[in-house]
Amino acid sequence: MTQQFAERATNVAPTGARNAELSDLVRILEDQQHRKLDVIAPAAALRFREGNVHVEGVESLITEDGVTEVDGIYRPTAVADEGIADKLRIPLAYLRRMRTDNVPLLDENVNAWLGQEPERRFMLRAFRGENGPGMPPAEGVARALLSDSYKLMDNFDMLLAALDGVQQSGHPTRVTGCDLTDRRMYVRVESEAVAIQARALLRGYRSPFDGRSGDELPMVSAGFVITNSEVGAGAYTITPRAVIQVCRNGLTMAKDVMRAVHLGGKQDEGVVSWSGQTQRKTLELITCKTADAVRTFLSREYVEAKVSEMEAAASKTLAEPTKTIEHVTKTLSIGTEAKDMILAHFIRGGQMTAGGVMQAVTSTAQTLTDADQAAALEALAVPALTAAAAHG
């Protein structure tokens, strides 16, 4: 399995992985846990200089582990810029243009709006930079600017709770791939012990990757994908996912998703520390919900019902496949580059039906290097099937 890892800088926690092993994801998340800094700060304590967030005048946190310094310089990610634009009601396209073309104007705009409501409070999620002993504090990373009532549900904790739930469900499973971006964590889980034949769904289909035939390997496995966002880009979710074994295409069934949102109460100013009791209760709930979801999504009855639903639409023969793909991609707001890739995968797949369009969408998703884009495209596979069957 290919792996890609990304770091913002050599002194900041790694922030990305694509198609990684579970052990690699755990290692990255553990490192991030040591670098995280979450603080509730008033607008008066935040300033933009040279396009970076400067935190000034926030009290340090003193614990038995030492002193956590908050004041410092934090370089915003694209996600953080989106949060800043949203919270200060600055058009995002304008903010991005200022960052590219006129950083002094960006500083002036952000600081002016922060100054309008100096007592307004935000949660700043960041990674602390680290330098060696005796050196000045390193520049950190501003990951997100959020509401002061945002509930922390961190990837590492949620992953462990979810895996505990998977274990409690009693189903034999394996993690087939993990992605981590600035926005979300994705963990794909599959149970080949729960697999059914889907001959009608895969009739005439061949893998665009190695040419293997769906007629010879017509199996679909049960699975699901665990997602979480630490930066306000979505709830903790478990979404059922069917895996086409001949090509490893994944089909997520978004309408059956289980979710837990990041909503909590107002928090005091200063460094945020999630209390042990609150954390324990939240994670126990996540574990129980995960176990329940797994028992449902990994049942043979559930998979058979979903495959049956898809087969009814997938058999529709397309009179003009190119026009149908044009219609489907336009209807689902899929861009031109992805549309061209889908058409190429459709032709290689050799299945001239609405089901072939669905397969082309999911196989294209596998090839994307951006994990967020890949997940978003995979989620459109079933809607693409419906749209293709209706268009004919």
Automatic annotation (TrEMBL):
Highest taxon listed in the record's lineage: Bacteria
Protein's recorded name: DUF932 domain-containing protein
Species the sequence originates in: Streptomyces himalayensis subsp. aureolus
